[in-house]
Write a structure and sequence with these properties.
single chain, 210 residues, alpha+beta, two-stranded antiparallel sheet, disordered C terminus
């Protein structure tokens, strides 16, 4: 999934945006966890009230989860992604709300966490969250077998056709997922009707001569 994130304040405006029925055919409030209120406006108002005991101004962490154009994600997939993301960022157990808008058959999700630790009354720090979310986005694409967007590909400037065993092992150690290399071969094969066509398709994908 493509993950787009922002640290937010302005609770009423955010709640209005996420519940805007004019731009969507259907909006489902999947959950409000850790809040007394069962609606977004009330939940975000609680987060704001707790934040007043701290100096934190960006007390909400808002994330959109966007599956590929040709895939309809299930509620279970959105929930699983939210759980993995909060574990990655250190937001485990924090109050959160999940909204699923739908338009013309396409669904995405918004997850909003409170950054304020209610027991310690301080904001949870989120170091390097952009890098962590990029890694998580890659994992979600690969786990579901979705083709990686170019911005998430990481096989680098060497053709996997020329990998030695030692280079393959090194690629694994440095974070080049074998599933990504397998995906590259599969995509090239599907577009080919001959050995030459397969070679040309791979050259297109990796952007250097084989």
């Amino acid at each position: 999934m493509i993950l787009r994130v922002s640290q937010r304040s302005g609770v009423a405006a955010l709640a209005d945006h996420l519940t805007n029925s004019l731009d969507n055919d259907h909006i489902e409030l999947l959950e409000t966890r850790g809040f007394m209120a069962e609606d977004l406006h009330g939940a975000f108002a609680e987060a704001y009230a707790i934040s007043k005991a701290t100096r934190c101004r960006q007390y909400l962490f808002s994330l959109s989860l966007n599956p590929p154009q040709d895939h309809v994600a299930s509620e279970e997939q959105f929930l699983n992604a939210a759980e993995r993301i909060e574990d990655k960022l250190g937001l485990n157990g924090q109050p959160r709300a999940i909204v699923i808008p739908e338009k013309e058959g396409r669904r995405h999700a918004h997850v909003v966490w409170s950054r304020i630790n209610g027991e310690e009354l301080k904001a949870i720090n989120l170091p390097h969250f952009k890098n962590k979310l990029r890694d998580m986005s890659r994992d979600l694409f690969l786990d579901h077998g979705w083709e990686l967007p170019k911005g998430l590909q990481s096989y680098g400037a060497k053709s996997p056709l020329n990998f030695s065993l030692a280079e393959w092992q090194q690629a694994k150690r440095t974070g080049i997922d074998p599933r990504e290399i397998k995906q590259l071969f599969q995509a090239a094969w599907e577009r080919s009707d001959s050995q030459v066509g397969f070679k040309n398709a791979l050259e297109e994908r990796v952007s250097f001569p084989l």
